[in-house]
Design brief:
By secondary structure, this protein is mainly alpha-helical. It has 2 domains: 106 residues, no CATH class; 76 residues, no CATH class. Helix content is 40%, strand content 10%. The protein is built from 10 helices and 6 strands, in the order ααββββββαααααααα. The radius of gyration is 18 Å and the shape is globular. The chain binds iron/sulfur cluster (SF4). The site of iron/sulfur cluster has 13 residues, from loops.
């Protein structure tokens, strides 16, 4: 996450882009208006769901999420924030950057770390009631913990079947006009195929 110059401090941001290349920010309730007023499109977001694993910045270990964690996507599934412009070394949504980006000072990461898992924006805050019913159904059918369990058991057929059902479920929402393809990562989280790869990289 890049940060702007801080004129009143001795240390200032060098705009090196390192923060923005390490990953897009997680959204908090204070960022709700950015989504509501379409400063941040739903298509630019991805949800890490309950049951997925996340790295705890102060405990220095992976933890299981007990809530949604909505983030700005990375470019082409990399960590680099979608809005980081490498050539100019700048944030393309600087005036509307989320709370975490406005909080982070790379020479003083404490305040950002204190925000971890606090006052997070969740899908209920950005999707309609009818879409939230879809989310509820999907989360019941396709729990990350179930995928993880199958992987640990080495059940390749079970994993392949679950991924296939996931794909079918997503396609049915798009063809029936219930959801937009570009918004699927925010609505349902990453497809299980991608989630499996993420799990495999840490197992
Ligand atoms: S939103 Fe802007 S400041 Fe925040 S990580 Fe992305 S490019 Fe960096």
């Amino acid at each position: 996450m890049s940060i702007g110059p801080v004129s009143s401090t001795k240390i200032t941001c060098k705009r090196c882009g390192t923060c923005c290349k390490k990953g897009g920010p997680t959204l908090h309730t204070k960022d709700a208006s950015l989504v509501r007023h379409q400063r941040l499109s739903v298509a630019s977001l991805v949800t890490f769901r309950r049951g997925e694993l996340a790295y705890h910045p102060t405990e220095l270990r992976l933890i299981e999420l007990h809530t949604d964690m909505i983030k700005i996507k990375g470019k082409n599934h990399s960590f680099e924030c979608l809005f980081y412009e490498e050539a100019e070394g700048m944030c393309s949504i600087y005036e509307d950057r989320p709370l975490e980006c406005r909080t982070l000072e790379c020479w003083n990461p404490g305040p950002l770390m204190d925000m971890f898992l606090k006052d997070l924006l969740v899908r209920k805050d950005i999707f309609s009631k009818s879409l939230y019913e879809v989310i509820d159904e999907y989360d019941t059918k396709f729990q990350p913990s179930r995928l993880l369990e199958l992987l640990k058991q080495g059940d390749k057929l079970g994993v392949a079947r679950l991924e296939e059902l996931d794909q079918e479920y997503r396609e049915s929402l798009i063809t029936s006009g219930i959801a937009l393809e570009g918004e699927m990562d925010a609505l349902l989280g990453r497809p299980l195929t991608l989630l499996r790869r993420a799990f495999e990289s840490i197992l």
